[in-house]
Design a protein that fits this description.
3-stranded antiparallel β-sheet; alpha+beta; 3 strands; single chain; binds zinc ion; 2 helices
Length: 86
């Protein structure tokens, strides 16, 4: 990883969206957790409520979710969004 002058690659900060939200028991209380796949959301997508792949998404809290780091077995990353951000 190079910091500094090594060419601005336009590193963008993606917001994370999910196919849906569902309340789940978590540490004794009900917490809204994403269901389905995670999608990357751009600035325009925030307004439109759509991921980069144009799927309608429910936005997740950027404090708790980062793209693409928070994907996993339970929340697979949308491969279209992944292709568009990598
Ligand atoms: Zn997507």
């Amino acid at each position: 990883m190079t910091l500094g002058s090594a060419g601005a690659s336009g590193q963008e900060q993606w917001t994370v969206g999910a196919d849906g939200i569902q309340p789940r028991p978590w540490s004794g209380e009900s917490v809204d957790m994403p269901t389905g796949r995670l999608h990357a959301v751009s600035g325009n997508g925030l307004v439109a409520g759509r991921g980069l792949c144009l799927a309608p998404v429910t936005l997740l809290d950027p404090i708790d979710w980062t793209w693409p780091d928070d994907g996993g077995p339970e929340w697979p990353l949308c491969w279209i969004c992944l292709a568009l951000t990598c």
